[in-house]
Amino acid sequence: MGKKRKVISVIVLAVLLLGGLSVTASAQSLKSLSKQLRDLGREFYIGAAVPSNLGGSDQNIVTTEFDIMTCENDMKIGTISPNRGQYNYSGGDRVVNLARQNNMLVHGHAFVWHKYNPGWVDGTKSMMEEYITAVGNHFKGQIWGWDVVNEAFHRDGTFRINAIGSNGQDGASVFGQRQGKQYIEDAFKIAHRVDPNARLIYNDYSISTLDAKFNGMYTAMKDYMQRGIPITGVGFQMHLNPDFTEAMARSFGEKLQKLADIGLESYITEMDGGAPNTSTSGLEAQGDIYYWITKVALDQPMFKVLQVWGIRDSQNWRINPDAPEDKAVAPLIFNDNGQKKPAYYGIQRAMQEKIEELSETPTPTPVPTAEPFDLGDCNHDNAINIVDALLIAQNYVSLPVQNFYQESADVNCNGAVDIVDALLIAQYYVNLVPAFQC
Asked: pTM (2 decimals)?
């Protein structure tokens, strides 16, 4: 290879590396991008719901791509305590241990829910306090955040006490029937007393799309915050359909802002967005939904976590749901074979864009100086070397540069600062040209 070609190769490679361009951006894991965001001061975690008996290939996906996980079923009351006073923590412990071994966080799900409770759950305050205290103490210090109360509002925004309508999603709550709406704030008080360092979350479905439900929930959360009830934030279950639009994503962002205005964090605790079909265009449309949601969420500093509800499409609950209206096509970001889908790249793209936004720094205005500097000394450090060539090359490809002085960079004096000037400086540095002459 000739000297001139070598000089060009060195400059191009150095610009890519030193200039901050991500040569392999598409190959970066979501976990890696999440860490980059935190390193830039934007607290954010990417995660997934997992079973406790996580297989080898799924375990590899989870530990490679995510930095927080939710125990899908093994921290629910029916699994932990099928009989009163008897506790089986083995499933939850496996998830916690896997997280600890891989420097991951754990999101606990859930203390109080109206569904899938064993027969002994009578909904009284003493029963609720007994259970939260036992489970909270067992996992104390190991859980980043708990879903303390899950789905406590009907779709019309009223408190879930008795059932309304015929749809099972609007069924009654045994806790509401025995304690009234008071059980919600009491559950948070108990959880905070047991584990004061855990983030305490109210979690619900359709609050991103049903304004009435969001408004009812928001009114209650605002009241709790004003009275000092220990709630950290609100979890959104984003079980979306193919008709979700970019305008709906913007509306979701407005809801996040309303929560931030009263001091509440926000999280997407459960996300699965159905595709219109599994054609290329169908999966790309699904990818757009994941992109819109992630972009809007990352634009809100009080938004902290995005978790998909499962790993592969075939494992998601919406493939075979209890109710027909919940059914969805290929709702996750990995297909049945564990391959990345456009939905994965939609999340990745939004994260990369936020990293680029946070990384941008304005080019400082050069400080005037009365001292004359030589042509080629582009950073005015009294030396002409490869750094000066790199600064010109970075400026030429519109990368932000610091301490760059245009008046010293036009070494061939043709009125333009371009890659030819960088090459001339590089040639000068390796003694191919003796000096710059205008």
From this structure: 0.78
DSSP codes of every residue in 39-94:
HTT---EEEEEE-SS--HHHHHHHHHH-SEEEESSTTSHHHH-SSTT----HHHHH
Domain boundary among 359, 393, 420: 359
Choose the weakest-confidence range: 77-86, 90-99, 318-327: 318-327
pLDDT digits (tens, 9 = 90+) for 392-432: 988 888 777 777 887 888 888 877 888 988 888 888 888 78
Q: Which residues of 43-60 are buried (b: 16+ CB within 10 A; e: fewer)?
A: ebbbbbbbbbebeeebee
Q: Are 308 and 272 in contact (CB under 8 A)?
A: yes
Range of the domain at 202: 40-359
Query: Do the Cβ atoms of 95 and 52 come closer than 8 Å?
Result: yes
Residue labelled with tokens 């995510």? 66
pLDDT digit string, tens, across residues 234-246: 999 999 999 999 9
Domain presence at residue 275? yes
Structure tokens of 103? 């420097």
Report whether 50 contacts 88 (CB < 8 A). Answer: no
DSSP 3-state helix, strand, coil percentages of the chain (rounded to 5)?
45, 15, 40
- Token readout for 132 is 């939260």
- What is the mean pLDDT of the segment spanning 26-49? 95
pLDDT confidence of residue 362: 62
Q: Are strands 265-273 and 105-113 parallel, antiparallel or unpaired?
A: unpaired
The torsion defined by the Cα of 344, 145, 300 and 150, in degrees rounded to 10, comes to: 90
Same domain for 303 and 400, yes or no, is no
DSSP 315-367: GSGGGS-SSGGG--SS-SSB-TTS-B-HHHHHHHHHHHHHHHHHH--PPPPPP
Q: How far apart are CA 372 and CA 268, in angstroms?
A: 58
Residue 27: C-alpha distances to residues 30, 141, 340, 344, 352 (Å): 9, 34, 11, 12, 12
Do 417 and 304 share a structural domain?
no
CA separation for the pair 396, 407 (Å, rounded):
15
- The arithmetic mean of pLDDT across residues 201-212, rounded, is 97
Bridge partners of 113? 150
Considering the domain architecture, whether residues 181 and 308 belong to the same structural domain is answered as yes
Residues in the chain: 438
Give me 232's structure tokens: 């950290």
Nearest to 164 by CA among 224, 229, 212, 109: 212
Name the residues annotated as catalytic: 151, 270
Q: How many domains does the chain have?
A: 2
